[in-house]
Amino acid sequence: MQKTLIAAGLVAACFLATDLQAQESGIYFGGALGLTNLDEHGTGFAESLDLAGASYTLDIDDNDMGWKFFAGYQFNRNVGVEIGYTDLGSADLDYVVTSPADVTGSASSDISGFTADVVLAWPLADRFDVFAKAGLVFWDADLKANVTSVGDFSGDDDGTDIKFGLGARYAFTDQMSLRLEWERYNNVSFNKNDTDMFSVGLQFRY
Which of 21-25, 58-62, 191-195 is predicted least confidently? Predict the structure, then answer.
C-alpha cells in the first residue's frame, strides 16, 4: 500500500505542476559522495549458529563510502521530481566458529539501485532552501562469501522498497548549488535492513 501511494505521488506531482506557476523551473543534474551505514548486524547468521549450539565470534563492518548520480525536473521552486542511481557500498562479515567444529569464513554484500522521488522544497532565503523527498528504490544486492574447507559461493537478491530523506541546498550561482542530504533506504539487502546515507554533492541547473 505504501509503495502504491508513493508511486501515485510521483505521478500526481507531474500533473499538479501543470497548474502551478513555473517559477525557477527547469532540468537539473548532479552527483554526490557520502558515508553509508548498512545496518548489517548479522542477526540471521547468528541465529542459525545459536540454533546449532555453536560457539563463535563475529566481526561486522557495515560502514562504507557511497555515491550517487541524479537528474530531475524542477516545476517551480517548491515542487520537483528526481531520478537517480545510488551505490550504497558494502557490508563485510568475518566469523570464527570454535565449536562444534573449527570453521572460519567471510562474506561481503554490495547494494545499489535506481531511485525515483518527489521533492518538496521550502525556501528560507534567496539562495538557500531545505527539502524533503520520498519515493522508491529499485535495489539489487550481490553477495560473495568464503567458508574454510568449502570454498567460495555467491548469491544475489533484489526488490522495490520505499526511501525518503531530508536535505539543504545553497545556490552559489543560478546554475550551481551545494547539496547536503540524509536518506533512508528501507528494507534493502539480504536481511531486509534499513540503510542510511549522509552525502554532500553538487547540483547543476540546465
Answer: 21-25
Grid coordinates representing 130 are 531545505
Q: CA quadruple 86, 88, 89, 92: dihedral positive or negative?
A: negative
Q: Is the peptide bond before 123 cis (omega within 30 degrees of 0)?
A: no
Cross-strand bridge partners of residue 59: 94
Per-residue pLDDT at 79: 97
Domain range enclosing 50: 2-20+27-205
What pLDDT score was predicted for residue 19? 44
Please report the beta strands in the chain, taking only residues with DSSP state E, as ranges in sequence order: 26-37, 55-61, 63-74, 79-99, 103-123, 128-147, 151-171, 176-188, 193-205
Per-residue cell: 190: 539480504
Q: What is the mean pLDDT of residues 17-24?
A: 48
Q: What is the DSSP string of 152-201?
A: EEEEEEEEEEEEEEEEEEEESSSSEEEEEEEEEEEEETTTTEEEEEEEEE
Q: Is the Cβ–Cβ distance between 205 and 28 less than 8 Å?
A: yes
Give percent of the chain above pLDDT 70: 86
**Overall pTM surpassing 0.85 (yes/no):** no
| Separation of alpha carbons 180 and 169, rounded Å | 7
What is the spatial distance between Cα 22 and Cα 1, in angstroms, rounded to a whole number?
A: 32
Looking at the 3D structure of the chain, how many domains does it have?
A: 1
Query: What's the CATH code of the domain at 131?
Result: 2.40.160.20
